[in-house]
Structures are given as structure tokens and as C-alpha cells.
Amino acid sequence: MLEDQTTAASADPWPAAYPQGYAVVDVETTGLSRDDRIISAAVYRLDARGEVEDHWYTLVNPERDPGPVWIHGLTNDVLEDAPLFKDIAEEFAAKLDGRVLVAHNAVFDWSMIAREYARAERTAPVRQRLCTIALSKELALPLPNHKLESLAAHFGVVQRQAHHALDDARVLAEAFQPSLRAAASSGVRLPLLECRPLTEWTDGAARIGRQASAPSSSGPYGGGSGGWRPSRKRPACPHPNPGRYEPGKPLKQGMRVAFSGDTSVDRELLEDRAFEAGLHIATSLSRLTSLLVTNDPDSYTSKAVKAKQYGTPVIDEAAFGQLLRDVAPASDG
Known about the structure:
Layout: H1 2-11, E1 21-29, E2 38-47, E3 52-59, H2 69-72, H3 76-79, H4 85-96, E4 100-103, H5 106-119, E5 128-131, H6 132-138, H7 148-154, H8 165-186, E6 192-194, E7 198-202, E8 205-208, E9 256-260, H9 267-276, E10 280-282, E11 291-294, H10 302-310, E12 314-315, H11 317-323
Parallel strand pairs: 1-4, 4-5, 9-10, 9-11, 11-12
Antiparallel strand pairs: 1-2, 2-3, 5-6, 7-8
Helix pairs in contact: 6-8, 7-8
């Protein structure tokens, strides 16, 4: 019976543009900030149609206190003899190579992984990621919230050990499988986002993209060589504000764009791209703001609330990335 179902499933039409493989990932960490470390990691590798190929798990010695033990259960004694990240980096990379990284709140898992590879003076072989929160929104799943346990319950997946990387990765893989099939059968565009790894290494501080200046001790994550990004101020946008963004039309140079919440691409890099395209980066939201970019428009951040009050257009990061490819020039004069 299983063979018949598998044969029938393989014969179903499948979107040609969909990825050829996925790495469903979960990492447990010492905390949530930029200088926190990975203490365990798990990967379930899936083929193009979401069938499990294999899985992998490791503990990681973070070379510091393990953080909230009451959440993840990993004590100093447990982690003392675990390998360092640099020692498992190659094996981890082999599990990720050539696949789309899939995670629940993928911006967090990717950020932690990218920083660990930067510390190891290596680059993670990931070029795209898919957040299962974003996919559940694309599918309009009737979830009470965006927690992994809610997604699992929707698909009848039983969670055995929450906040254990291997079980969380299994749960997510089992919930991702029917999500992927539903997307394929409905022709839904997968919410794939670009991954830009931390690739530069200067005085022990990893930095994103093509930034050339050295880290500043006065930056937002100061402390000399421990700072991830120096603080800096962009020049003023040279173009007048042409008004609000109109859905279905291109962005236009001079538009005032505000950002709110987590982004998959590093926030400053995303703002750099917008500035280079001729847009004005707004640090707050007002009636003059042309557009708000957020992956969670239903959040209660001050910008999201004001956008609703003012009727400011709102789009997500993926749509914004598409629009950045073809920004209309500013009007003459």
C-alpha cells in the first residue's frame, strides 16, 4: 500500500521551479543576542518532494556559560566534552550544501549559523532559506499563533521534547512535508529569501557584505574587536519624495521606506540596498512615509500600528526585494 502511495505521489505534477532539496534545521543557543553561541544543532535532509533522506545532530561546546538551562536542559557538564563549532563546521556544511535551509523563524537560525561560521573563518554553504512561519501565512493556515507547537498540532505532529534541537527539527520536518505538498498542489510561490553569509573577517569581528571600515568601539555592539557592525550615518537622499507606493507599480527614487521587525537579510545590508537604489531610509513612520516593509504586519510595533492608522502601504521583505530590482528614476526637477 505504501509503495502504491509513493508511486502515485511521485507521478503527481510538481512545480519545476521548486528547490531540489531542503535542510530542515534547528539550533539551540546560549541566548538571543549577536554574541550568543550555538550549543546544539540538528538537520533533517529532505528531497525535492519533502521525503526524509537522513538526519544529523550534534552538541557544541559554546566556550561560555550555556545560558537558559531551564529551557534547553544543556548544562556545563553536558557540553564540556562536546566539540567546538569549528570542529563540526565541515560536517554541518555537508548537510546544508546545495539545499534550501528551512527553519521556524528562519532569520534567527540563519543568523546564529552565519555568525558561527564567521567566527570559524568559514562560510556556510547556504544561498536561500525558507521560513515555515512565512509559508504558513502563504497557505493561510488557520493557526492561533505562529509557534512551532501550533503548526505541529495543525498537522497532527506529536512533539516529544520541546527545545531539543533534534526533536524540534523532526517536528518541523514532519509539519513542513504536508505544507510543501499543499503549496505544490495549489501552485503557491514558496517564500524563498536570499542568504548573504558573513564573509569578511577583521580583527576577530565578522562583518556583512562589502563594508570596508573597521569596527568601532562606539558602535551599537561596541567593544572594539567584538563589535559586529560599526555605527555610521548615511548621506541624505538626494531625491524629493514622490509620495506613497502604489501596489502593482514600481518603487520610485525618493520614496521614504521604513522597516519594522526581523528581516532575513541583515537589516543594515537591506537598508544599504534601498539607499543605493535611491530610496530614503526613514527611521520612524509618519504620514509622509511611502512604504513600510515588515514580515509581520499584524505585530504591535509602533511602526506597524502607525501604518494602520495612516493607511501606509505595507509589504513583506520578499516583495520588497523584488521591487528593488527595478526602481523607477526620480522625476526631473
